[in-house]
Amino acid sequence: MKEETKRKLSLAHLGKKFSEEHKKKLSLAKKGKKLSEEHKKKLSLASKNNKGCFSLGHIHTEEVKKKISLAKKGKKRTEEQKRKLSIVKKGNKNCLGHKHTDKTKKKISEASKGRIKTEETRKKLSITNKGKKHTDETKKKLSLINKGNQNCLGFKHTDKTKKNMSIAHIGKKLSKETRKKMSIAYSSQKHNTFKTTWSKGFFREDLGLYVRSTWEANLLRIFNYLGLHVIYEPRGFELSNNQIYIPDFWVLETDELIEVKGWMLDESRNKIDLFQKEYPDILFELIRKDEYNEYKREFKDLIPNWEGK
């Protein structure tokens, strides 16, 4: 068939709408048919850089978009299809350097708002990303991209988000290597908060833990010296004001929670008061400056690696 004839036939069908019955017949006729490798190759070559394509710049109506979406719902690609798509996309530079317009970015943002990933999806993403490590080159690029990034500057999480984040981290144990890296990262940061002699968070080699303050570290050393089994920051307790309270220590022998506070902010005081009110059956001790100094006088000279004067 000549190219001119093909073009005329194409134009003749432009704008024509098939009936539902006709669509059904076409669908049934094509079911089970497999294209030959040669045929696939021809279609691929025909589509490449096809500037005369009638769909170029075409925008689907909302109705068509809805139909396409419904038609694809529930469809799952086979492992073979996934593998082939992966091979096809490798090295694909068609969109390299492409940048979305502000309008497109806004649309993508609006479309993504409120989407909640199912537990199944989260699990799959977790499995997919496990063991993946960025190359040094990738890390360098990410570092350069994020330097001076002020997209989240001033952003505040909602109480609900904070609560979810806190619950998600409860019980998670960091490896020794991770804790050491965090310690190095934190120690090199310059914080604009007030300075105190007791608030020094970093990884303690002798304790094998990242501990948030000098006082907490020294109390842990005392517990170890006395042979007590203690868990540092054991768990979070949900409070009625949507906050989470995490005590400093849980002494297993006495089933007691301990909190050490040198400087008590109003927020901390209110949180502890609410915890004691809502969990009255839990043994709880608050160690303040006077109590800490008593421990210090008794144990300072007996314990190696004691911090502070």
Itemize the secondary structure elements and their pairings:
Elements: H1 3-13, H2 20-30, H3 37-47, H4 62-72, H5 79-89, H6 102-112, H7 119-129, H8 136-146, H9 159-169, H10 176-187, E1 202-204, E2 209-211, H11 214-225, E3 230-232, E4 237-238, E5 244-245, E6 249-251, E7 256-260, H12 266-278, E8 283-287, H13 289-299
Parallel strand pairs: 7-8
Antiparallel strand pairs: 1-2, 3-6, 4-5, 6-7
Helix pairs in contact: 11-13
Structural commentary:
The chain has helices at 3-13, 20-30, 37-47, 62-72, 79-89, 102-112, 119-129, 136-146, 159-169, 176-187, 214-225, 266-278, 289-299, and strands at 202-204, 209-211, 230-232, 237-238, 244-245, 249-251, 256-260, 283-287. It has 309 residues and is α+β, with helices and mostly antiparallel strands. The radius of gyration is 31 Å and the shape is elongated. It contains 13 helices and eight strands. The termini are far apart. It has a domain at 159-299: Trna Endonuclease, Chain: A, domain 1 (3-Layer(aba) Sandwich), CATH 3.40.1350. The longest helix has 13 residues, at 266-278.
